[in-house]
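Please go through the sequence line and token line underneath and see whether the fold suits the sequence. See right below:
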Amino acid sequence: MNYDKELDARGLNCPLPIIKTKKALNDLGSGQVLRVTSTDSGSVKDMEAFAKQTGNELLQSGEEGGSFVFLIKKK
């Protein structure tokens, strides 16, 4: 899937992946997609909760090469 910006949050622990995701989304326009890569296993539930709380859409969540990958569409 295509995305407009990528955030590498590997090696960061909670809550840093969410904080950096929020900052990165602020730089995007409505409808643009952010790809986030994280090694924090807690980020799976955190990203789901973050998307629900902020109204952004979690398009995809999965694992890739030992990291967790998320695609988030800005509302």
